[in-house]
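[Meeting: bench + compute handoff]

Bench side (C.D.) handed over the final construct sequence. Compute side (W.E.) agreed to return the predicted structure before the next meeting so the bench team could plan truncations. Sequence as handed over:
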Amino acid sequence: MAGVRNTLDGFREFLMRGNVVDLAVAVVVGAAFTNIVNSVVEGVINPLVGAFGTQDLDAYESCLRGDCAAGEGIPIRWGSVISASLTFLITAAVVYFLMILPMTRYLERRKARQPVEPEGPTDVELLAQIRDELVALRAGSTTDGGAVAVGAQRPAPGPEAGDGPEGQGSDGAR
């Protein structure tokens, strides 16, 4: 029973997150908006386009084969395609001009009002700083007994006595 309760609590938290609620509101508003656009296209735009031909834009069609008037042909309904295209274009224009453009301007103004934080160093600058620190540590002096300062590397061993001819190892070649 506790597993079901945890699942339901998780589902409730999921539904109450801001983006899910915003999405639900957007779907409802979008559905209502679609009805408005369809009414404008069917009641205003289609009759204006239809003024150049038939009264009903959906009645524009061509017959691919046979006689469409007799019901034997294959009709291509150009009017329906034009009507759907007009609906899409009007919907896209309204969404852009009434939703996206104002929101973009609002976000730009909001961003301009926020104080500009200084940008941190770039990756190249950080790598150059690390390199300089490593060079400084390597060039640093060692204490008596060969101990190296904290974080520093031991210097590379130099030629020592008994290391072969001229300090290059026992075989004389490197």
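W.E. noted at the follow-up: The chain has four helices and two strands. C.D. will use this when planning the next construct.
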